[in-house]
Amino acid sequence: MNDYSTNQLCDPETMLDNISTAVLVLNEELEVACLNPAAENLFFISERKAVGQPLQHLISTPNTLVQRLQAALKSDHPYTDRSVFIQLGNGRKATINYTATPYRADNGLTYLLMELSRIDLQIRIANEETLLAQQQASAILVRGLAHEIKNPLGGLRGAAQLLERELPSRELREYTQIIIGEADRLQNLMDRMLGPHKRPNMETINIHEITERVRQLMQAAHDQYPKIQIKTDYDPSIPTLLADRDRLIQALLNIGNNAMQAIGRKAGNISITTRTLRRFTIGQACHRLVVQVQIRDDGPGVPAEMLPNIFYPMITGRSDGSGLGLSIAQSLVNLHHGLIECHSQPRNTVFSILLPLETEHE
Length: 362
What we know:
Distance between the termini: 36 Å
Low-confidence stretches: 4-10
Helix content: 40-55%
Number of strands: 13
CATH superfamily of the largest domain: Histidine kinase-like ATPase, C-terminal domain
Strand content: 25-35%
Order of helices and strands: HHEEHHHEHEEEHHEHEEHEEHEE
Radius of gyration: 28 Å
Mean pLDDT: 82
Number of domains: 3
Number of helices: 11
């Protein structure tokens, strides 16, 4: 039998130290009186350094948050807020839910017990599930649409060929050639929307073979985009992965070409970065190790109204764009049980390609 007294088991300080929720105690001036280890991890600061500091030194707090904490102290009523975006003191960003509860201590002073829960992970998983559901719904829609279009196209092309044989003059046969040519163009469009038909040719590769090939292909377009600089930042310790070389090159090249087209002939920068992420979830699947390839550009950014739908086919912000590049890239990465995410602001658009490094998720 374990020798634990009731007092040890119910000691508030011990319990506070062992919960995963970040807890701060603030005085009436909103200065830190104490914090638990989870809060030390969140704010990346030790309790010794944090105590006595204003809350604003730990968080770049929105004015509304400070006002609400002051109102909670004044009214002596708890306050809860959700999905609050904050910037931590070390430059990191986070989205939190928090509850602030006033209480009067034995010394007669009023303190504010602030509980904070990061919800970034839940938001990211929900966004990833939405992306995956979008891709699946899009694929079903495109397959059905392609089936309905390809059959009449075949009949239309065949009829034009038969008609061409019966026409006496070259001038009239030019019209049938237009019909046949447009039918072939639509057929090719349907094939591109459907994506690759063959099974992936999986082999063991180094991700930097892929990124270097993509970089070389992008640099080959230097005459078209002479003022764009392409930089790389690779993690050489990334292990090999099982992937279809050609399809991954195509996926990353589609994203890279989009970045170059977004910047155009203006001066700009594109960076290709590789990192590993441990115990990382893609959708609902938790993977021991994931490689993250990020392609970042400082172009004008993706319009906010377009951002949620950019992986749907036929969605494009350019008058000369097909709207298929990102949809195809997402499909190709999905074949590897991976996912592409996009975060965009003016002069900072980041596409993150996430690929599991093990063949089966845990």
